[in-house]
Amino acid sequence: MNRLSCRTLAIASSFFMYASASVAQAPRQTQADSYTRYELLDPAMQSFRIYYDVSATTPGAEYFYNTLRAGSEHTVHGATDLMTGRALEWEVVGGQEARDSGHPTARLDGEYLKVELARPVPNGGEARIRIDKTYRDTASYFRDDDRIIFSRSLGIKRNSVMLPAGYELIGCNYPSQVVILPDGRIKLSFFNPGPSAVNYRVEARRLEVLDSPWDAAVASASAEGSATTTTQTVSAAARVDYAFSERAFQDREIVYFLRQPETHSFSLYHDYTESRPGVDRYLNVVRQGSRASNPSATILDTGEELEVEELKGQEIADRGISLGRKITPETEVVVIWFDPVAVGHSVRLRIEETYTDPNRYVLAGDELVWDRGFGRPQNSVVLPYGWYQYPSVHQSETALS
Asked: What is the structure's pLDDT at 392?
């Protein structure tokens, strides 16, 4: 009896340990490239529409779980696969069901939007989706006398807030890019470079038509101009028609991996989304003084490896490739080919290569010097093994103050 009981206990203990190990080894949900756009609706509704772009990155995942914030009344409008524009299946589930079906770190008291992905996440790739929902949240969006206030903790790094039609911005508590949209609405674009969530606050008020003599003068001038001519030519060196891209929405990112400085070499990967219909290639013009090697590229949405060509001088012209500049015998370009992008579709590319540049990556005494201009908004640099950064004098003084 005792022997049987001990054996039964041992079996039960083994099963418990196996089950515990299985739960512990279940992959946690990971994601990247998150961007949220908040469109403030009529202030009387205290509601805002949310468009949330996110990339699921857990290898093999078939679902993505989006936390529905407690304290808000939510209405889900749908989810979309950003590669194809296809509508995705979704349902709202509780925390326990989320854990049981693939989100092991879900809060048991939480509520989640479970989105079925168009395809399992490829190893090393991602599944890009857009979630469309509306929240009514009286604590985040409300009136204060003649003002409307949007005040919300933002854990996502890239965000934009669109004011309701007919409202002007009074202020916000973090530096933001402010643009006027073609329909007259004002949009704030906010990029949070810090490690923690921030409490982002926007204040606005209704814009009165012809509220000032300046407004009346502008309206009068516009009316007079429209009666005589609809266009005008401006002769100036300034770029009077320059279109600003939204800072927070830009989705190019580059990570540089510096090799030992004696090699003058560094590898990189560059993630880039192409959405222009008909485009079938990406052109990477090698900087003068640099040499590119070992280029490769994949579509992150599917894991597909792409054809890559390295062309130089006359080879570029012979392939009918235009670079928008004069091609010399020293001009080098890396060409990544893919199927033409269909209308409403997009592809997310990862381009990898190694650069050698003895002019801009050198060892000066006992210091590593890497001198490179950045043309993209998001850049990360990984130092080679055995190297670290000294704090600058300014940084030291700041730390002591």
From this structure: 52
Rounded average pLDDT over 360-379: 89
Alpha-carbon gap, residue 121 to 112, rounded angstroms? 20
Distance CA 26, CA 293 (A): 38
H or E stretch covering 30: none
Is the CA virtual torsion 371, 372, 377, 383 positive or negative? Answer: negative
Strand order across the beta sheet in which 167-172 lies = 141-144, 147-154, 198-206, 167-172
**DSSP E strand boundaries for 118-245:** 127-136, 141-144, 147-154, 158-162, 167-172, 177-180, 186-191, 198-206
List, for residues 149-201, the tens digit of each pLDDT value: 999 999 999 999 999 999 999 999 999 999 999 899 999 999 998 889 999 99
Residue 105, Ramachandran bin (φ over 0: left; ψ between -120 and 50: alpha; else beta): alpha
Residue from 376, 38, 33, 34 nearest 188 by CA? 38
DSSP string, 2-19: HHHHHHHHHHHHHHHHHH
**What token pair was written down for 23?**
């739960």
Contact indicator for 197, 153 with CB cutoff of 8 Å: yes
Can you give the pTM of this predicted structure? 0.81
> Do the strands 127-136 and 253-258 form a parallel or antiparallel pair, or are they unpaired?
unpaired
Q: Walk across the sheet containing 63-67 and list its strands.
A: 63-67, 111-116, 90-94
Give kind and range of the element (H or E) at residue 318. Answer: helix 314-318
DSSP 3-state of 213: helix
**DSSP label of 392:** P
Residue 195 amino acid letter: P
Q: At which residue do the structure tokens 């908040």 appear?
A: 38
Least Cα distance to 362 among 373, 353, 354, 371 occurs for 371
CA distance 305 to 336: 10
pLDDT for residue 26 = 63
Is it the case that residue 219 has pLDDT exceeding 80? no
Read off the tokens for 81: 């696969």
CA 328 to CA 347: how far, in whole Å?
A: 31
Q: In the structure encoding, which two tokens stand for residue 185, read together?
A: 């609405």
For 5-59, the pLDDT digits (tens) are 443 334 444 444 444 444 455 689 999 999 999 999 999 999 999 999 999 999 9
**What does the alpha-carbon distance between residue 199 and residue 39 come to, in Å, rounded to a whole number?**
17
Can you give the pLDDT at residue 397?
A: 38
pLDDT, tens only, 229-267? 445 566 677 877 777 788 888 888 999 999 999 999 999
